[in-house]
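Box 3.1. Reading complex inputs
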Amino acid sequence: MSIDRPCGTYDSSYDQDMAIVRTRLQWILLVVGLLFLFSLPLYSGNYILYMVNNICITLIAVVGLNILMGYCGLVSLGQAAFMGVGAYTTGILAHHLGFTFWLALPSSALMAGIVGVLFGLPSLRIKGFYLSMATLAAQFIIMTLILNAESLTGGASSLSVPAPRIGDFVFNSQSKMFYLIVPLTILMIFFAKNIVRTGTGRAFIAIRDNDLAAEVTGINVFSYKLVAFFISNVFAGVAGCLWAYTMRSINPEQFTLIDSVWMMGMVFIGGQGSIAGAVFGTIFIRGLDELVRTVTPSLPALIPQLKAENVIGFGPVIFAVVVIVFLIYEPRGLAHRWEVFKASYRLNPFTY
Amino acid sequence: MNAVLQYLATGIMVGGIYGLIALSIVLICKATGVFNFAVGQFVMLGGFIYYTFANLLGLNVWISFPLSLVIAFGAGALVNRVTMQPLIGQPVGTQMMVTLALISFINGITLVIWGGNIQVIHNFLPGDVVRIGNTTFSSILVGAFTIAILVFGAFALFFQKSKIGLAMRATAESHKVAQARGINVRLIFTLTWALSALIAAVAGIFLGIKVGVAIPMGAIGLKAFAAVLFGGVDSVLGAIVGGLLVGIIETLSGGLLNPWLMEIMPFIIILLILIVRPGGLFGQKRIERI
């Protein structure tokens, strides 16, 4: 661990040694960053807030997925569907039964977690590619069930969700939701960061690196795999709950396979087995996606020779090219580059 | 009884097309270890290329069919050269992410070149329906099924008899050993991608005649994922059987039980099969117990 310490920082107690924020610079950056983040609604428009909310919700789901994929080595292609479980649990509870936010949030998390354990059961026998395909099956089965349970979920048409309220305060706009979503996101990331440092997290890493060796050292591989599925899906459930409350109207179109697959993409591009990586990956992909969406409408003016409806196709092409070029030049993900940067910063001015 | 027979027969025919797409996935997966998520897009691209020759340029089927296959072959090789080769030696997951980006890329390119409308390819097969006993088939399905069987036969021969086929099998077994024995592994990778794109194009052309080509067609890849799962990701024989099984289960459950079960029934059965036989029906058995 010594390489992780900045020059001249010596820990004199275990508390200090285990702290997440340890140096003065980190404290300053944290406080400035948080101040900037929480003052954002004061000087930015609805669009930016919508984007930040959106990114934060995805972030929760992706951080959860990274615990499952990056730490426990179990690839899941159903994260969007599990998020859908959370969203629809919230939707049904709030729409039909009038649950409040504080009740809907834990029940969504729990529900998604239980469904995750159910679909994690095949991990008893299968791993790697086949397991990822079992979760692909989960994606289809869950979304088809939601689509066809029309009396509960509204089927293909949307299910409206009332705005969340805490006490008398109603969170009915993006800027108000911002103050609900961002603290929860920070809390969840902190939670994830700590989980992977506990005995459970170490067990996950042992299973990922060599499940046979893990079993021999006395780790109950199967139950830990289920725990990983549960934790990952609790994150997805929380994300789904927040999504339902932010969008205020949910339908199965919002939780497709391609969303699941891109969440996996965010974990890969960010860097597996790194909470910071999940954050980077999500911001990178979502940001790029949004950038392409803003640029695309102005493309037809640049190429007047082609029909406007065809030129729109350049949007996804640009997106894909950036991702491919990025993967070719940074195959280990953004987290790797971040580590390299941190290491060189710490060793400065020496080059070893 | 007659209805069951009819569904069964239709399922087998449709399954032939799924089997082709599954074969396209299995080829790449076996040789390079990469799972090609963009296979549905290759199918669609093949359909559009044929559409360009047959409908837009009005060429004869005997010219446009081989021409489209040649172009699809080249496109597959190009994809491998530009996106996959720089990533040799990197984690396989990274390469799978690239195939994910390819979905976006091919969809975008298709939109730019051919637009977003659905295009139906001219049917070059004679007659509308074929009758065998009490069951009827559309001639397109029969044609597709025949071609699928021919392709499978050709590949079985190719892998068994030809020197390149042998080299491909050796590469699938072990990259290092194959390289040490003087096989040009990079060339084999390129060839694998090219052949895989070619097979996908064949499936795309028949699907284009049956339901038309459009961008949502890429979703057909999902059916092939199911087929691959049935058969096991490293088995060529499994791809055929898996494809047929998916076709049969789909039409039977859709026709006899409930239409909305059609999409998920194969996956439900797969979950059960995976629990009993973790490597798929024909997958390699690994001796490993924990």
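In summary: Chain A has one domain: 44-347.
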